[in-house]
């Protein structure tokens, strides 16, 4: 039996939002986290990263990051977190942004730096400023910076949502490459069925703060995701109809 890369259980209230989620991830591979807007996907990722604190437990590769006696702060969690916005440091070059992540790695080796630069096609960009990059290039740098910290878990919160079709087409092959090369789990939030079908091994669906059971195989993943998003659209249409007095 494969040892889970991540085991999580969070239950509590943040403001007026209630999270009650329990799930596990295998030791490697990409798990898509899907569901309607407001379901709690970003909140769940922030709890995993230690940016929000709710009662629960979290173990990664057998190490307790949170339980009844333990709560590792964000800077002590080996998480690579990529947001919808690249959030690069504007006063540093691409090389400087990558070095910022590299300095956090427990085993900083030049070979590792060169490997990440090559795998994401960042060599021609190293001396450029973030403001001189396209959206897809900025996200590639953000992914590289996260990888250079040598994380034990990757979290990606709709990293392609702010990109146009051309930029998405540019960066997707690199994400597919990460799927094939990463030896750690990745939790990937997206609303795009085609995007998820290309890179994910399984899918988890969130609704109203809860993770629904089930993890379809790759062959069924696209159909499962389309059904989940179709349900989301129907719910949005129903809500709009009620608001307009048509219900």
From TrEMBL:
Tagged with keyword Glycosyltransferase: no
Annotated Gene Ontology cellular component terms: membrane
GO MF annotation terms: ABC-type transporter activity; ATP binding; ATP hydrolysis activity; molybdate ion transmembrane transporter activity
Superkingdom, natural source: Bacteria
Alphabetical list of Gene3D superfamilies matching this protein: P-loop containing nucleotide triphosphate hydrolases
Keywords in alphabetical order: ATP-binding, Nucleotide-binding
InterPro entries linked to this entry: AAA+_ATPase, ABC_transporter-like_ATP-bd, ABC_transporter-like_CS, ModC_ABC_ATP-bd, Molybdenum_import_ModC, P-loop_NTPase
Domain ABC transporter: 1-233
Matches recorded under PANTHER family: ABC TRANSPORTER I FAMILY MEMBER 10 (PTHR43514), MOLYBDENUM IMPORT ATP-BINDING PROTEIN MODC 2 (PTHR43514:SF10)
Name of the protein in question: Molybdenum ABC transporter ATP-binding protein
Organism encoding this protein: Phenylobacterium montanum
Lineage: Bacteria, Pseudomonadati, Pseudomonadota, Alphaproteobacteria, Caulobacterales
Gene transcribed to yield this protein: modC
């Amino acid at each position: 039996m494969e040892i889970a890369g991540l085991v999580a259980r969070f239950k509590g209230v943040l403001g007026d939002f209630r999270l009650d989620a329990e799930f596990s991830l295998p030791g490697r591979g990409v798990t898509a986290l899907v569901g309607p807007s407001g379901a709690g996907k970003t909140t769940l990722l922030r709890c995993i990263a230690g940016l929000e604190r709710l009662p629960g437990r979290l173990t990664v590769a057998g190490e307790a990051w949170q339980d009844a006696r333990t709560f590792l702060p964000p800077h002590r969690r080996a998480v690579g977190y990529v947001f919808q916005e690249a959030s690069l440091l504007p006063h540093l070059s691409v090389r400087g942004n990558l070095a910022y992540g590299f300095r956090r790695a427990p085993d900083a080796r030049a070979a590792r730096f060169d490997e990440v630069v090559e795998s994401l096609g960042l060599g021609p960009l190293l001396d450029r400023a973030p403001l001189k990059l396209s959206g897809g290039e900025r996200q590639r740098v953000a992914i590289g910076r996260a990888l250079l910290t040598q994380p034990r878990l990757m979290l990606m919160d709709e990293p392609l949502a702010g990109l146009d079709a051309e930029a998405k087409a540019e960066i997707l092959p690199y994400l597919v490459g990460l799927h094939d090369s990463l030896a750690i789990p990745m939790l990937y939030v997206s609303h795009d069925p085609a995007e998820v079908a290309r890179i994910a091994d399984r899918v988890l669906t969130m609704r109203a703060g809860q993770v629904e059971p089930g993890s379809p195989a790759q062959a069924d993943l696209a159909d499962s995701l389309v059904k989940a998003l179709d349900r989301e659209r129907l719910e949005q249409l129903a809500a709009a109809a009620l608001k307009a007095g048509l219900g």
